[in-house]
Write a structure and sequence with these properties.
Helices cover 44% and strands 13% of the residues. The protein is an alpha/beta fold. It has one domain: Rossmann fold (3-Layer(aba) Sandwich). Strands 3-2-1-4-5-6-7 form a 7-stranded parallel beta sheet, sandwiched between helices. It starts with 17 loop residues before the first strand and ends in a 15-residue tail after the last strand. Bound molecules: hexanoyl-coenzyme A and NADP nicotinamide-adenine-dinucleotide phosphate.
Length: 268
């Protein structure tokens, strides 16, 4: 799919907005962080690897805005809280929160250990709660907004993905509950559900071979993988005043994944 978005296409949509972004040190979320910086945002990133945090902060800072970060595992609430404190000490406020971190591997439910299942639930679901809970008092002050990154597995059952399906379904319900509880304080809470996105760790893990990739494309209504910028565009829209009346929703940017198999095969 042709992708003509580039650095010169900026309108300062996020000028001065401070964004606390979990899992934004690679893949889709890092592209969201890049695009936000190009639109004038100040970004604070967290993820487990110090090397990835350092490399991301260096890159984002080179885009002409401010960036900082900390190596944090979202499964530890005290560590997330400490990072939020550091973000406030550095930048004074939080306008936007991304809960984008996730873990995934294909595994049958009868083969997976209890700890393997728990790891994904804790990273995706508990991690999303931790990030939202640790930032809510600051979002209260800015009428801020939260975006969680979910997946098609959150709304349909997939083979070898029971852990991911359960975790992302939990994220989908969590954001709706938070939207209900925190809307009266002016906070919007939404999720974006990406379809299969080109050149990502997720796709390498789930459809790593050329043959699997072709099968995936052939099954999609739009017959192509998405681009990381497709997700960044949706995130920018959700943060803009154009989405001021949008909360508790799951925005599907999936190329038709959830419509079912579009390869033409009859499902018997
Ligand atoms: C079965 C596995 C496994 C595998 C790990 N485990 N990999 N079980 N198959 N391939 C088990 C381990 O044996 C262990 O159980 C338990 O999981 C925890 O493993 P650790 O390595 O200790 O966990 P941790 O260091 O916390 O790492 C978490 C992780 C890892 C999820 C296992 O893969 C990770 O860090 N992933 C982050 C990056 C990632 O997954 N990105 C893709 C996101 S894409 P035991 O019983 O031995 O202790 C996505 C959606 C894609 O989410 C959708 C596409 C359409
Ligand atoms: P990715 O590159 O692996 O990104 C995952 C990010 O989360 C990394 O920055 C990783 O950094 C961080 N992370 C993982 N575990 C963490 C933890 N315990 N604590 C803190 N940070 C953690 O993945 P991606 O493929 O771009 O996917 C990004 C998001 O999109 C995920 O939510 C995924 O479920 C969703 N999604 C992806 C696709 C796809 O096609 N790729 C499709 C649908 C949905 P560290 O390793 O440093 O921790």
């Amino acid at each position: 799919m042709a992708d003509e978005r580039n650095a010169s296409f900026t309108k300062n949509l996020m000028a001065g907005k401070v964004c606390f972004m979990a899992g934004a040190t690679s893949g889709i979320n890092r592209q969201i962080a890049r695009r936000f910086c190009l639109e004038g945002a100040i970004v604070y990133v967290i993820s487990r690897s110090l090397d990835k945090v350092t490399a991301t902060v260096d890159e984002l800072s080179s885009l002409g805005t401010e960036a900082a970060g900390k190596n944090v595992d979202v499964r530890s609430y005290p560590d997330v809280e400490e990072a939020v404190g550091d973000c406030i000490a550095k930048f004074g406020k939080i306008d936007m929160v991304l809960a984008g971190q996730a873990g995934n591997f294909p595994a049958g439910a009868a083969q997976m250990s209890s700890n393997a299942f728990k790891s994904v639930i804790d990273i995706d679901l508990l991690g999303t709660f931790n990030v939202c809970r640790a930032t809510v008092e600051h979002l209260n002050k800015t009428d801020g907004n939260i975006i969680a990154i979910t997946a098609p597995q959150g709304s349909s059952p997939w083979m070898y993905q029971s852990h991911v399906c359960a975790a992302k379904a939990g994220v989908n319900m969590l954001i709706k509950c938070l939207a209900l509880e925190w809307g009266p304080s002016g906070i919007r809470v939404n999720a974006i559900s990406p379809g299969p996105i080109d050149d990502t760790e997720g796709m390498r893990r789930l459809a790593g071979s050329t043959e699997q990739l072709k099968k995936t494309k052939d099954s999609l209504a739009l017959r192509d993988l998405g681009a990381k910028d497709d997700i960044a565009d949706a995130a920018l829209w959700l943060c803009s005043s154009a989405a001021r009346y949008v909360t508790g929703t799951i925005i599907e940017v999936e190329g038709g994944t959830s419509l079912g198999d579009a390869s033409g095969a009859l499902k018997l």
